[in-house]
Amino acid sequence: MKRLRKMVLVANLRQVRWVKLLLAIAVLQLSGCAVGPKHHPPMMQAPPAYKEVGNWKLAQPNDQNLGGTWWTIFQDPQLDALELQANVSNQNLKAAEAQYRQARAVLRYYRADYYPTVTAGPSATRTRVSANSPTSSALRGATYNDFVLPFDFSYQADVWGRVRRTVESYREQAQASAADLATVNLSMHADLAIDYFQARSLDAQEQLLNSTVKEYKQALELNQSRYRGGLASEVDVQQAKTQLETTRAQAIDVGVLRAQYEHAVAILIGKPPAEFSLPPLPLSAPPPHVPVSVPSALLERRPDIAAAERRVAAANAQIGVAQSAYYPLINLSASGGFESSSISTLINGPSGLWSLGLSALVTVFDVGRRRSLTDEARAAYDHQVAAYRETVLTGFQQVEDNLAAMRILEDEAKVQDEAVTAAQRSLDLSVTRYKGGVTSYLEVITAQSAALADEVTAVNIVGQRMVATVLLVQALGGGWDRSSLPERPECCGRLIGSNSNSH
Fold this sequence. Notes:
The protein is α+β, with helices and mostly antiparallel strands. The chain has a single domain (about 35-115, about 160-325, about 370-485), classed as Outer membrane efflux proteins (OEP) (Up-down Bundle), CATH 1.20.1600. It is built from 9 helices and 5 strands, in the order αααβββααααββαα. The protein has helices at about 1-30, 75-90, 90-110, 160-230, 235-270, 300, 305-325, 370-435, 440-475; strands at about 115-120, 125-130, 145-155, 330-340, 350-360. Strands 1, 2, 3, 4 and 5 form a 5-stranded antiparallel beta sheet that branches. α4 runs antiparallel to α5 (about 235-270), α5 packs parallel to α9 (about 440-475) and α8 packs antiparallel against α9. The chain is elongated, with a radius of gyration of 39 Å.
């Protein structure tokens, strides 16, 4: 009896030692520092103001933000309806949303390394030992059952932060994927608005050409009447007819490009071109005002810049993952369960079994492999830093380009309006001179061509100004803000462009 008590006491002491060891490892893991450099956003010097801003009104703190539905500033109900359809049906948005969900799933996969793995492998066997077996005589010829209900526990202690750095890297990549989704969303809506305004600009051009055809038809009838009265030659009639048919051909040719823009709009809203029709609506109103902030605000407003910065953070975490390979891996293992020859006594106390284990694995010599991995991680980090800075510079360039385009096109529109007025005045004088018999019809045709060309240019400038406005909104981030990024991508909800119910 004393011997049994002594054996139980020794077993209890061993269990206490194991528990103390496990607690010590747990405390070491919780208090341990993750190896690797701490992330700091790359420094990027932003200019105090845009070079091309000119007299453009800067955004004030009380100015209304563009918001997610930035296209409403154009006050076009038809455009608003199309943009909302793109939110639901655009296939590029669905693809980007699926990539974001994929990034979240990968993050959840690596987060599972924070926790132990438990497996179970129940088995049941019936065995007959040979009577001539070299085993002990008690087992020869015996037949017995073996029922086992085991549980295995394995855990790799994250003492050096390898798991934490890995999860950090994939968390940043998931945030970058969320910013990519916002970038695709902004790009698709901008493309839709550009195609829409291009189609409306062509509607205005076609309207102008059709009204000019009517005027040229009247001019042809006038020349035919004058020819029959002996006041004009057949040359004048044929010149007028040539001018008329040429303009008709131009009006028809506009339809080719207009159909292409209509088809592009159909694809962007997720419909086959055969099932979509864009009603003609000539473009006439000038573009709205777009508030422009200081360049430093662009770093918080552009989703592509946010994505590039998150990828820098992910690359920085990978340096820590590579450096953790210099430290030993500490593995904890345990197994337990029940084993019995009878199913009725399988889960009884005496049928229990258990074991605990601790191991450490350290690489002593690897011919520089770990150093190579660290160098690779640092080079990847430098690559992402350079890509981030290039993205920022490209953002500044795009804003400057479209500010310059809007400023120059506005000045050009004013000059072109004067040219249209002068061309119309010249045409009126030429028609008066022709009717008075002072000049030939060739002078009228020349004036007509100049007047039509100036009017077409004026119409095209309006379309170019609308496109430049859309591109400026896109360059400014379309009202997006960095705070829109999910803080915990592994558990966030539905984002822009998502059409999935699987979240």
